């Protein structure tokens, strides 16, 4: 049972990290609370459906393509909408909610209330340490971990990452180094939405897809990010692990409803003790 | 790089922070801007970097008007500021803070050489290379902030209160470093409340009072001026006893 716990923990935490990373990245750099984050996850799921089941592409081609398309949609959203709300936490929340409702509506109009059935490219299971693991879940977890690691490298090792961190920590001082905040904002949205789209495209074959699937995704991202400290990437990674452990443990011992209940109980308890989150600064 | 301010004014809402300031800093020289707290010294540097908008007047570097150029472009054009209060990136290491200063530069080799130069100037930074900005002492932060500005390979270096909050021994090191930087031909504008230090390092001095320029003169003349001494140099003490006081001890090694 412990092995099963570890495996479920790994899967859950990896997806949580992926969901939360893009959300916290965008907030950290732009102070924009993207409540449409879940809809970008949903777009990723629908994109992979269209590319795989309508266009007929292989899943392994459709997956990165779907994430790229959602990243592109994120850049458009930044240029058309969000850049006007940079630094405006409340205003960005409201406009993001409006965008979320619009995207859900548009997808419902095109694809219907019920999500289309999506075919599963990866089937079968492997036995690891006496536990039977579905290959599709293992694949999703592995890709999620790789994407998180790649994002970490991008943020810590690249010129763009340096610029984004500078803008997140002190935008006026960043400008004094010749860094234009306005150029980092589309990049933040591109990466944040790419990660959201990837999460959607990865999980689409595991669960069913429907226009409201973004709500649960946003809730997960939000809980992880608030628990870890808004804007803190290490905080989000720790929180994803904690919540993944709670989710896995409680789901195995009891059921998913009690797991969700416990997760939120922990969030409330942590926020009472540390209002800025685990690694957040007030 | 020659800097020329023509009738520069700046406002914060209704508060006039700078009132028609005109200053010329010839290329390759060091100018000291002295004045009490709130006189407008930092605002003056802000108008040069573009972070504070002009309410009137013009700023020219090498004869070209900076009007309309955003801060990023001015920095790329060779103007660097070591800001008041250091303003390091708190969650970046010393090494990353320094490299952020060279963000706009593409010449990797020259950047690496300049990094070595900064470490030679401030050996302490090399020891602290992997530490986060927020974990440095005040003196180390100041060295890092100046080092970061140097990493931009500026032709006009603006220093806002580089001696503030430093222990006397560290101020001596700082003064030596600033003199070494100026000797490389960079034009330096040095803002200081420590007027004795600033006048010892500069060719010319400019005195700001409540947003107005009240004196511009060779630095040595200002340092010898009884009125300036009374207002900014604590000249209530006899000259020979000055050496034993803290303020004078700070600057004794750098007075020419
Ligand atoms: N951001 C600001 N908003 C409003 N007033 C400011 C601001 N910054 C400075 N001031 C005011 O402008 C005047 C000049 O300030 P400053 O340039 O910081 O002086 P100094 O650097 O000589 O101490 C002061 O009266 C100060 O209170
Ligand atoms: Mg000041």
Automatic annotation (TrEMBL), chain A:
Origin superkingdom: Bacteria
Parts forming coiled coils: none
Subcellular location: Cell membrane
One GO location term (cellular component): plasma membrane
Sorted UniProt keywords: Amino-acid transport, Cell membrane, Membrane, Transmembrane, Transmembrane helix, Transport
Entry-linked InterPro entries: ABC_transp_permease, BCAA_transport_permease
Membrane topology: Multi-pass membrane protein
GO molecular function: transmembrane transporter activity
GO biological process: amino acid transport
Bilayer-spanning residue ranges: 6-27, 32-51, 57-82, 94-113, 138-155, 185-209, 221-246, 253-273
PANTHER family listed in its UniProt record: AMINO ACID ABC TRANSPORTER PERMEASE PROTEIN (PTHR11795:SF445), BRANCHED-CHAIN AMINO ACID TRANSPORT SYSTEM PERMEASE PROTEIN LIVH (PTHR11795)
UniProt family annotation: Belongs to the binding-protein-dependent transport system permease family. LivHM subfamily.
Designated name of the protein: Branched-chain amino acid transport system permease protein
Organism expressing this protein natively: Enterovirga rhinocerotis
UniProtKB/TrEMBL annotation, chain B:
SMART domains: AAA
Pfam families: ABC_tran
Domain of life: Bacteria
Alphabetic keyword roster: Amino-acid transport, ATP-binding, Nucleotide-binding, Transport
GO biological process: L-amino acid transport
Domain ABC transporter, chain residue ranges per copy: 3-235
InterPro entries: AAA+_ATPase, ABC_transporter-like_ATP-bd, BCAA_Transport_ATP-bd_LivF, P-loop_NTPase
SUPFAM superfamilies registered for this protein in UniProt: P-loop containing nucleoside triphosphate hydrolases
Keyword ATP-binding: yes
Recorded GO MF terms: ATP binding; ATP hydrolysis activity; branched-chain amino acid transmembrane transporter activity
PANTHER family per the UniProt record, alphabetical: HIGH-AFFINITY BRANCHED-CHAIN AMINO ACID TRANSPORT ATP-BINDING PROTEIN LIVF (PTHR43820:SF4)
Annotated family: Belongs to the ABC transporter superfamily.
Protein known as: Amino acid/amide ABC transporter ATP-binding protein 2 (HAAT family)
Lineage of the species this protein comes from: Bacteria, Pseudomonadati, Pseudomonadota, Alphaproteobacteria, Hyphomicrobiales
């Amino acid at each position: 049972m412990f092995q099963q716990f570890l495996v479920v923990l790994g899967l859950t935490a990896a997806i949580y990290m992926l969901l939360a990373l893009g959300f916290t990245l965008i907030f950290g750099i732009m102070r924009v609370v993207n409540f449409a984050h879940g809809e970008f996850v949903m777009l990723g799921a629908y994109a992979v459906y269209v590319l795989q089941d309508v266009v007929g592409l292989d899943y392994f081609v459709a997956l990165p393509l779907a994430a790229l398309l959602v990243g592109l949609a994120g850049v458009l959203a930044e240029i058309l909408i969000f850049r006007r709300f940079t630094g405006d936490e409340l205003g960005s929340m409201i406009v993001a909610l409006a965008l979320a409702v619009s995207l859900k509506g548009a997808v419902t109009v095109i694809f219907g209330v019920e999500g289309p059935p999506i075919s599963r490219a990866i089937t079968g299971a492997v036995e690891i340490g006496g536990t039977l693991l579905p290959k599709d879940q293992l694949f999703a977890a592995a890709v999620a971990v790789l994407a998180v690691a790649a994002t970490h490298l991008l943020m810590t090792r690249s010129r763009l990452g340096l610029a984004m961190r500078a803008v997140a920590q002190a935008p006026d001082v960043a400008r004094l180094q010749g860094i234009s905040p306005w150029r980092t904002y589309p990049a933040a949205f591109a990466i944040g939405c790419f990660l959201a789209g990837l999460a959607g495209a990865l999980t689409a074959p595991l669960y069913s897809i429907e226009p409201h699937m973004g709500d649960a995704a946003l809730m997960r991202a939000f809980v992880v990010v608030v628990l870890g400290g808004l804007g803190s990437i290490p905080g989000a990674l720790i929180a994803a692990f904690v919540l993944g452990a709670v989710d896995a443990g409680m789901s195995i011992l009891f059921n998913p409803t009690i797991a969700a209940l416990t997760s939120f109980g922990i969030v409330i308890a942590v926020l009472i003790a540390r209002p800025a989150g685990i690694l957040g600064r007030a | 790089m020659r800097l020329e301010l023509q009738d520069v004014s700046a406002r914060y809402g209704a508060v006039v922070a700078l009132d028609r300031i005109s200053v010329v800093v010839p290329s390759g020289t060091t100018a000291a801007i002295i004045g009490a707290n709130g006189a407008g010294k930092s605002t003056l540097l802000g108008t040069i970097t573009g972070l504070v908008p002009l309410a009137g007047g013009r700023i020219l570097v090498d004869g070209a008007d900076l009007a309309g150029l955003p801060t990023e472009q001015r920095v790329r054009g060779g103007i660097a500021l070591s800001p008041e209060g250091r303003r390091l990136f708190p969650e970046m290491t010393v090494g990353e803070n320094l490299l952020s200063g060279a963000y706009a530069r593409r010449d990797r080799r020259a950047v690496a050489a300049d990094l070595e130069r900064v470490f030679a100037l401030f050996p302490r930074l090399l020891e602290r290379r992997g530490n986060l900005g927020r974990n440095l002492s005040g003196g180390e932060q100041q060295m890092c902030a100046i080092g970061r500005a140097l990493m931009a390979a500026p032709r006009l270096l603006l220093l806002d209160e580089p001696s503030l909050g430093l222990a006397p021994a560290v101020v001596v090191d700082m003064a030596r470093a600033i003199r070494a930087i100026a000797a490389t031909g960079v034009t330096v504008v040095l803002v200081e409340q420590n007027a004795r230090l600033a006048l010892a390092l500069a060719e010319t001095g400019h005195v700001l009072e409540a947003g107005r320029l009240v004196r511009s003169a060779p630095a040595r003349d200002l340092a010898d001026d009884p009125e300036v001494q009374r207002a900014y140099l604590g000249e209530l003490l006899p000259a020979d006893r000055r050496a034993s006081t803290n303020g004078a001890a700070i600057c004794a090694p750098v007075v020419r």
